[in-house]
């Protein structure tokens, strides 16, 4: 099992991450599709090849082909959007009205339920540190019926996956 491989690979100083990873992979707050799409999108957002390889293997066993691709799409489009929207914010109010001018068709037609794609986009936006995108996606999923506990569960998955990537990067660099 891939989550088990990640847990085994974590050094002793990352014991909390190991415990969190195990607990979150069994959560009942999210549907299986929401959970594993969040894991997969977050893994992409970390930029850590080991984390992505291990999580993608397990996610492929749970997600349909469409959901798998949509999670990858959420990570990819947020990789672009989070930079662009943060830059608009950094540049100030006069850039607020500037047309984005970037294609984002996948957001309108992700191939899965919109709420799931938005939840994955929220998780990635959290990792990427985009306040505006995180808040916007949270608003969309809450209006679609997800609870604040479900939103927070996705954030916890993103935070834990990001922490696992940091620990494994440190372990590799220091060994």
Automatic annotation (TrEMBL):
Carboxymuconolactone decarboxylase-like domain segment(s): 94-173
Keyword annotations of the record: Antioxidant, Disulfide bond, Oxidoreductase, Peroxidase, Redox-active center
Pfam families: CMD (PF02627)
EC number: 1.11.1.28
Record-linked InterPro entries: AhpD (IPR004674), AhpD-like (IPR029032), AhpD_core (IPR004675), CMD-like (IPR003779)
Active site positions: 130 (proton donor), 133 (cysteine sulfenic acid (-soh) intermediate)
Disulfide bridge partners, by residue number: 130-133
One biological process term in Gene Ontology: cell redox homeostasis
Database matches in PANTHER family: ALKYL HYDROPEROXIDE REDUCTASE AHPD
NCBIfam families attached to this UniProt entry: ahpD (TIGR00777), ahpD_dom (TIGR00778)
Protein role: Antioxidant protein with alkyl hydroperoxidase activity. Required for the reduction of the AhpC active site cysteine residues and for the regeneration of the AhpC enzyme activity.
Quaternary structure and interacting proteins, as annotated: Homotrimer.
Sequence similarity: Belongs to the AhpD family.
Name of the protein in its database record: Alkyl hydroperoxide reductase AhpD
Source species of the chain: Gordonia crocea
Lineage summary: Bacteria, Bacillati, Actinomycetota, Actinomycetes, Mycobacteriales
Gene name as annotated: ahpD
